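Q: Hi! First time doing this. I have a protein sequence and I read that you can turn it into a structure. Is that right? Here it is:
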Amino acid sequence: MISVILGDCNSQEFGKDEYSTRRKMMVESQIIARGIKDQKVIDAMRKVERHLFVPLEYASQAYGDFPLPIGDGQTISQPYIVALMTEVLHLKTTSKVLEVGTGSGYQAAVLAQICDSVFTVEIYESLAKQAENLLRILGYNNIKVKTGDGYQGWVEYSPFDAIIVTCAPTHVPKALQDQLAEGGRLVIPVGEMHDQELVLYEKKDGKLSRKDIVAVRFVPMIDNTGKNY
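A: Yes, that's right. Below is the predicted 3D structure, encoded as structure tokens:
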């Protein structure tokens, strides 16, 4: 279960002040020191309480420089990767963003600190429900959560100014290409499990230009039967 602690410090290894201190250190040493410059992203990483988005037994490790398990074989991404993927989207307050792979809801919360509207799709119903509940409790009224196959995007709310994918297909889904607005940006890890590249696409004149960012390792994108895309 994702930890909905919200001030109940007796159920945590650390008190609220300690988590706040660790979060500030995380931003300084893992985010700013590695070159993240977008102040909106930095402020969002400082504000979102990452320890609330991991299982309780991992709360004390929430601000470490590594991913953590969140159940159903899924993970919450390394903080730097969350910040990097968010920064390359060049988000504005008015940006409408689609996230594929809700997970614990942490990335959606970071996006929602910056943008007016975030739409996020998770294929695991248990994770989607936990994330939706936690985000509601935390007051993120600008996030819509859907249980479904993210390979298909969320056509009802398209086009999107930005799309962020937190699981790796072997190719860029056609639906996501189609649902990206003109001038929009799509950041996605692409490739097989041990050979993935984080890639940024930008749509100009209806076509996508590609820029490779960094080698990464994400969980694979799967369909409803568990088969990898």
